[in-house]
Design brief:
Layout lengths: L2 H9 L12 H18 L3 E4 L2 E4 L8 H11 L7 H9 L2 H11 L3 E8 L2 E8 L2 H17 L5 H12 L3 H4 L3 H14 L5 H22 L1
Antiparallel strand pairs: 1-2, 3-4
Length: 211
């Protein structure tokens, strides 16, 4: 699974109720960041401070990633990270859900109560749906060695406010946050800058919602 797939399975209770565990805007921004993170990990784009640029126009195997890369190649004048996060966030939930559904890992259900529509995403396999959260909890609590992709996922989980969702024990939260602070000092700079912008965008969105 890609970075955005794992983030989706953590951000939605796919192994349980199928309901989102975050404010919709935080979820969509986290997924947008994860999609940019996939291209960063594939060394097709890089993030430096507030700018994102294509560094390698060669195609990627994933159709969704290729579509995003194609858009970025065709819009070289747009280099602001926050602009791309906002743009991708418009459809990030539907796009990543469709990828998981096509892979046979997710199913979508929809119900309507009066004027409200409720969309739920449920994992087709409980173990596969729960595994990203379980794996991330184990790595954070035990201080296990992480790949750059693992670091990016953990940073996005923290940036969007999902950390307490996967860490139910308060003592585990303390250990995880200590470890987060340690590995954030070694995370590749493009991923550090990207997840920092996701954190800021989520913070702005929450403040705007409360206002």
């Amino acid at each position: 699974m890609g970075l955005a797939d794992e983030f989706f399975l953590i951000a939605w209770d796919t192994a349980g109720s199928g309901a989102p565990q975050l404010h919709p805007r935080a979820t969509s921004l986290g997924l947008a960041g994860a999609l940019l993170g996939e291209l960063t990990l594939a060394q097709r784009i890089t993030v430096w401070r507030a700018e994102v640029r294509v560094t390698d126009p060669r195609p990627v195997a994933d159709a969704l990633g290729q579509s995003i890369l194609h858009e970025m190649i065709n819009a070289p004048e747009h280099t602001d990270v926050r602009t791309w996060l906002a743009y991708l966030a418009r459809n990030s939930v539907e796009d990543v859900a469709a990828r998981l559904i096509n892979a046979g890992l997710l199913r979508r259900t929809e119900s309507r109560l009066l004027w409200r529509k409720s969309v739920r995403y449920v994992a087709t396999n409980y173990v596969k749906g729960a595994w990203p959260a379980v794996r991330m909890e184990k790595m954070l609590v035990n201080g296990e060695r992480m790949t750059p992709a693992d670091m990016a996922l953990a940073a996005l989980v923290e940036a969007t406010g999902l950390l307490d969702t996967i860490l139910l024990d308060r003592r585990d939260r303390l250990a995880a946050r200590r470890y987060l602070a340690t590995f954030m000092a070694t995370i590749p700079p493009p991923l550090r800058d990207l997840t920092g912008h996701v954190r800021a965008a989520v913070g702005d969105a929450v403040l705007s919602y409360r206002a």
